[in-house]
Amino acid sequence: xxxxxxxxxxxxxxxxxxxxxxxxxxxxxxxxxxxxxxxxxxxxxxxxxxxxxxxxxxxxxxxxxxxxxxxxxxxxxxxxxxxxxxxxxxxxxxxxxxxxxxxxxxxxxxxxxxxxxxxxxxxxxxxxxxxxxxxxxxxxxxxxxxxxxxxxxxxxxxxxxxxxxxxxxxxxxxxxxxxxxxxxxxxxxxxxxxxxxxxxxxxxxxxxxxxxxxxxxxxxxxxxxxxxxxxxxxxxxxxxxxxxxxxxxxxxxxxxxxxxxxxxxxxxxxxxxxxxxxxxxxxxxxxxxxxxxxxxxxxxxxxxxxxxxxxxxxxxxxxxxxxxxxxxxxxxxxxxxxxxxxxxxxxxxxxxxxxxxxxxxxxxxxxxxxxx
Length: 372
Known about the structure:
This protein is α/β, with parallel strands linked by helices. It is built from twelve helices and twelve strands.
C-alpha cells in the first residue's frame, strides 16, 4: 500500500507514465544506495503509521505525501522553483533543568529567551509555507515553555509532523495527553546510559534517569511515538554497553534508538571527544548486528547516521534540514554551526542556498540527484 501511494503520487506529479517510471527508478536507486548492499531493514509501526525513520513522516499522512513528492522532485524536477528542505530542527528555548555534558546550546543556556511566542509562530509558518513536512522542536528543554509549546502545536498547519527532542524532565501523563491532543506525533527522549548513575552524571541531575523513564511511559500511554537517542561517548563504547542499552530500550518499549556521535561543539568545544576509527567500527558492527539479524526482529530499530554519512556523504546538513537556534539564527545543522541568516528577517530562498553551499563540516555532500 505504501508503494501504491508512492506510484500514485508520482503519476499525479508528472502526469506522464514514462516520466513517473523514471522518477520512481531514481527514487529506488537512492533508497538502495542509502540501505546499502546489506539491505538493512529500517521500518517500524507506531499508532497506525509505518516509519522508515523518525526523521521522516509516517505513512499514511499528508506529511508523508509531501515528503515523497519532495523527494521525487529532487530526483527528477517537475517544479520550476523548489527547495529540497524537508526537516526543520528548531530550538524554541534556552531554559533547561539539566546541565548535560554534550549540550550544543551551552553558551546560551538559561539566559533570557529572546524569541516571543509570536516569533516562534512566524518562523514555523514561514517554513511550513516553504514545504517542510517534518519539524523537531528542541532547546534547551522544550517542555520549559510548555504553554507556548501547546499553543505552537495547536495553531500550526496540520500537514506537518511535529516531534519534540527532550530529556523527558517534567513530562507528566497530563502533559503527554495535552501534547497528543495539540497535534504532536512523537517524542525523542535523550537517555545516554542504561545505568541510572552514569546517565545522571552525564546529565548533571540526580533525577534525570527516573524522569526520563517516567516520561517514556507517559508518552506511550498518551499514544505518542516514543524513541530514544544516545550520545555514544568513548567511555560508554563497549559491545556489552551497547547490547545492555538495546535490551533496556526494549524493556521501556521504545520504537527506535538513534546513535549520535559526540561532536566538538557547544560544551564539547575544544575537547577531544571525536571517536576513533576503532570506536566507529564497534558502532558499525552493532548497527549491522541488530538490523540484519532475525534475532533482533522484536527489538527497537537502530539508526546510525554516521554509517551512511561515511559511505555516501551527508544527505542532510543545509540540504534536507536546517537548524534554528534559540536566537533565531539559522545553521546547516546542530553540529555544523555557522551563522547563515536569521529565520525571522532574512529571505529563506537566499539562506537555503547559503546553507546548501555550506553543507556538512565533517562529511562530503551526498549526490542530491541520481539523475545527474
